[in-house]
Design a protein that fits this description.
The structure holds 2 protein chains of 2 kinds. Chain A is of the alpha/beta class. Chain A has 2 domains: 7-235 and 399-460, FAD/NAD(P)-binding domain (3-Layer(bba) Sandwich), CATH 3.50.50; 241-394, Flavocytochrome C3, Chain A, domain 1, CATH 3.90.700. Chain A has helices spanning 14-25, 68-79, 85-104, 130-143, 194-201, 219-226, 286-294, 326-332, 337-350, 440-460; strands at residues 7-10, 30-33, 50-52, 109-110, 123-126, 147-149, 152-160, 163-171, 174-178, 182-185, 209-210, 231-232, 238-244, 265-267, 300-306, 321-323, 386-398, 401-402, 409-412, 415-422. In chain A, α8 crosses α9. By secondary structure, chain B is mainly α. Chain B folds into 2 domains: 3-85, no CATH class; 91-351, Up-down Bundle (Fumarate Reductase Cytochrome B subunit). In chain B, α7 (101-122) packs parallel to α12 and α8 packs parallel to α14. Chain B starts with a helix and ends with a helix. The chains are: A alpha/beta, B mainly alpha. Chain A binds chain B through residues 39-40, 46-47, 49, 108, 110-111, 113-115, 126-132, 135-136, 139, 248, 251, 253-255, 257, 311, 314-319, and chain B through 14-15, 17-25, 30, 33, 36, 55-56, 58-68, 190-192, 194, 202-203.
Chain lengths: 461, 355
């Protein structure tokens, strides 16, 4: 199949749609190839809830100021300096105008959600969450004449010298080919391909849960890397957090998070503690726990709390396992009961004065003479009923991606590819070399989606 | 009590409470997020607070085919429908009327028949105009009980609702807030003011909100018209028919036009909307109720336009018959939603801290 189309956008999430709308507004004819069916369209954007936005003074739903330097420093802290300062500052600076642009394209914002007050200054929340943003963008894109194919599985982009010559995909059971003037890749990472994840990380990855879409299998990413397109980001690493062990294998999203670790003890399959549960407030520690759980036997952990801690954290999606005694809890959770009793007794004995306990601050209520220590919120587990959750490693995204310049353009060792741009998670490794900053993925997607759309349309015109 | 409806609503509410993305859409979510465990009373209150705007359904990343299979508008509609049956008095009536548009139609026809018989039997003793067809005292003896009985029945239902939801003593400020919300149909505005998702999937539109308000304000105008006429009749001894520049007509004609237009609009929207986002078993009854409102208003307008022709006795019988069935059925039809909705809004005003 050949046609007179200008641009093919591969992917159907936030970055893809920002690129498609921007290009269509510049008069380009645009095709979006989304691998998911309509009901699951939008990639990981479906699961997002906000984007991080620089601003001076109140801006939309945001309060106070959030200046470039503070934003950049926040990024430096989480990435440990693994970022491209030029691209990072471009993203941060452009984020401010994005908010208005998003509103103009149908996105509604709402005040910071209950339980997330600390983000009201830095992160603008989408009313209804990411899927409502995606819905608004599809409506707008279609009104701009963008054509969308769902369940369109891109299999190959043919790189000839410094150009993409054609795009192969299957749709409705038949193989098809498009020969657009320009291509934008916005099809995410590879975390849903468990085999690839296992090759990169090792055998434990088989037991990881994937928090987002099952459709980010990295097919296009692998195809381009095989042809020598320049990459960025550690190919072995993924961003992972500790989530409810009963979460579905894919697509559990936000609700599977568990915020109770700081008020608990966490043991492994053998009912042994292995790390300081009270090291820091949970938002700063949930990613570390993703890795800690991954290193335990069977990649599973067990959180134990008692009655006095039950209402100190956000409600969980599944009710906790409940028991009137620790023995009963151990049996229900398949832990060795004698060993669990012993671990809890040791822990309780090491707890001291708990009168300064404060659930939302580092209270210094610590154990003494215990290894590993619990350095905050250390209160004995002694008030029945007792509650337990299992914890597993939940993968959010992978870091390996396509290297881009400030115009979102891809390249090979020989120089730029003249008609290939990338946006969103598939190039985020350029800016986010490690760690994660809440809402930054959507910022990168919006900023670079618009740049990619603009550049592709300029080229096609 | 349909415990499976409550159980399903509880399952869904627990998932919503761990997500909270929909917080800004309507009053349901702030109320939901203020609970940690959901009693039957909590769920009944949430169900009656829900205006079925469907914003949360289309925004939800966990709707079918996702295994969480969330459909909160439907889950709450089922609980709501069930609560109206449960709190109705006498209870046996509700079951039939709630779920069955056909029963409503039959009841209407029955009313017409009774009226026709009455007209024949009592004859046109000594009245003029409408009262030549049916004497004023005959009308009153039919309609006064038909008006008072539903009020009595509703009072019992509201009391049962208030008990079930642990309602507190009502203050004036609660009532002001509830009426303020209903007056603007705030909960169909989507939180952002662009309206709700009803007739065209996730597109926001004011259609349903405006159609509902046309009916509601039209109904209130008609009700005011009837009340004024009653006062004119008894206090000032000015019987019907009234001229066009009289208060009953000035209120009643625009009211009737609003009701006719709004009910046609709403029926059109209901035909387009996804029935699986409400209580599917109630769809027929809801539709028949809107049709009944349409018939009440249309026959009233026709009665005014053609009152001096030979069609008058027939139109009067149809109009009075539809009004009679409308009043008698109020506690058992969709009409009851207005009372429960206000109760839920008042109850919600009690939940919030004083401003």
């Amino acid at each position: 199949m050949t046609s007179d189309i200008d641009i093919v956008v591969i992917g159907g999430g936030n970055a893809a749609l920002c690129a498609a709308m921007t290009a269509a507004e510049q008069g380009a004819s645009v095709f979006v190839l989304e691998t998911a069916p309509k009901s699951y369209r939008g990639g990981n954007s479906r699961h997002t809830r906000n984007f991080r936005c620089m601003h001076k003074g109140p801006h939309g739903p945001l309060v106070d100021d959030y200046c470039e330097e503070e934003y950049f420093n926040d990024l430096l802290k989480v990435t440990g300096g693994k970022t491209d300062e030029g691209l990072a500052r471009l993203t941060i600076r452009t984020s401010q105008e994005c908010l208005t642009w998003m509103q103009d394209h149908g996105v509604h914002f709402q005040p910071s959600l209950s339980g997330t007050l600390s983000l009201g200054r830095t992160n603008a929340f989408f009313m209804g969450g990411g899927k409502s943003l995606v819905n608004a963008y599809y409506r707008r894109a279609e009104s701009l004449g963008v054509r969308v194919y769902y369940e369109a599985h891109v299999t190959h982009l043919e790189l000839v010298d410094d150009r993409i010559a054609y795009v192969d995909f299957t749709h409705e059971g038949t193989k098809k080919r498009l020969e657009p003037k320009a291509v934008v890749v916005a099809s995410g990472g590879f975390q849903a391909d468990t085999d690839w994840l296992t090759r990169a990380w090792g055998p434990p990855a088989k037991n990881f849960l994937i928090r987002g879409t099952p459709y980010n299998r990295g097919v296009v990413l692998a195809d381009l890397l095989d042809q020598g397109v320049s990459s960025v980001g550690d190919p072995t690493q993924c961003h992972a957090v500790a989530i409810d062990g009963r979460a579905p294998k894919f697509d559990g999203g936000i609700v599977t998070r568990l915020d109770c670790v700081p008020f608990s003890i966490v043991v492994n399959r053998d009912a042994e503690r292995f790390y300081d549960e009270g090291e820091d407030v949970w938002p700063k520690r949930y990613a570390i726990w993703g890795r800690l759980i991954a290193q335990q036997p069977d990649q599973v952990g067990y959180v134990i709390i008692d009655a006095k801690s039950l209402e100190l954290f956000m409600p969980s999606v599944f009710p906790p396992i409940k028991a009137d005694s620790l023995e009963e809890l151990a049996e229900k959770m398949d832990l060795p009961p004698g060993k669990l009793l012993h671990t809890v007794a040791n822990f309780n004995q090491a707890c001291g004065n708990t009168s300064r306990f404060h659930p939302t601050e580092l209270d210094g209520v610590a154990t003494s003479g215990l290894t590993p220590a619990k350095t905050n919120w250390a209160r004995p587990i002694d008030e029945p009923p007792f509650y337990g959750y299992s914890l597993r490693t939940g993968v959010t995204f992978t870091y390996l991606g396509l290297k881009v310049d400030e115009n979102a353009q891809c390249s090979t060792g020989q120089g730029p590819i003249h008609n290939l741009w990338a946006a969103g998670e598939t190039m985020a490794g350029s800016i986010l070399g490690q760690g994660y900053l809440a809402g930054f993925g959507m910022t990168i997607g919006t900023v670079f989606g618009r740049i990619a759309g603009r550049e592709a349309a300029n080229y096609a015109n | 009590m349909q415990t499976e409806f409550l159980q399903e609503a509880r399952r869904q509410a627990e998932i919503c409470n761990a997500c909270r993305y929909c917080e800004g859409y309507c009053s349901v979510f702030p109320a939901l997020h203020s609970e940690r465990f959901f009693s039957d009373g909590n769920l009944t209150q949430l169900a009656n607070l829900c205006h079925n705007c469907r914003g949360c359904y289309y925004a939800c990343q966990y709707t079918s085919p996702h295994e969480f299979d969330l459909n909160l508008p439907k889950a709450l509609a089922e609980v709501r429908q069930d609560s109206w049956d449960r709190f109705a008095w006498p209870m046996a009536f509700a079951k039939h009327f709630q779920n069955s548009g056909l029963m409503i139609a039959l009841a209407s026809v029955l009313c017409f028949a009774v009226l026709f018989l009455t007209i024949r039997a009592l004859g046109s003793a000594d009245g003029e105009g409408f009262y030549a067809v049916l004497s004023h005292s005959a009308m009153v003896s039919i309609f006064l009980p038909a008006f008072l009985f539903p009020l009595f029945s509703l009072a019992i239902s509201m009391r049962r609702y208030w008990r079930a939801t642990d309602g507190e003593p009502v203050q004036f400020s609660h009532i002001v807030e509830a009426f303020g919300s209903a007056g603007r149909m705030k909960n169909l505005a989507g939180g952002h003011g662009d309206g709700c998702n009803f007739e065209e999937e996730d597109r926001f539109s004011q259609s349903r909100r405006f159609a509902h308000q046309a009916i509601m304000y039209g109904f209130l105008l008609c009700f005011a018209s009837t009340s004024v006429a009653t006062i004119l009749h008894y206090v000032f001894d000015v019987p019907a028919p009234y001229p066009i520049w009289s208060l009953p007509k000035l209120l009643g004609i625009p009211g009737g036009i609003f009701m006719v237009a709004g009910s046609l609009w709403l029926m059109g929207l209901k035909l387009k909307a996804d029935r699986n986002l409400g209580a599917p078993s109630a769809w027929g009854g809801e539709m028949a109720f809107v049709a009944l409102l349409f018939l009440v208003a249309l026959s009233g307008l026709l009665l005014y336009a053609l009152g001096s022709t030979g069609l008058m006795p027939l139109l009067l019988a149809v109009h009075l018959g539809s009004v009679l069935s409308f009043f008698l059925l109020t506690p058992y039809t969709k009409m009851v939603h207005g009372f429960y909705r206000l109760a839920a809004l008042i109850r919600d005003a009690q939940r919030k801290p004083a401003m």
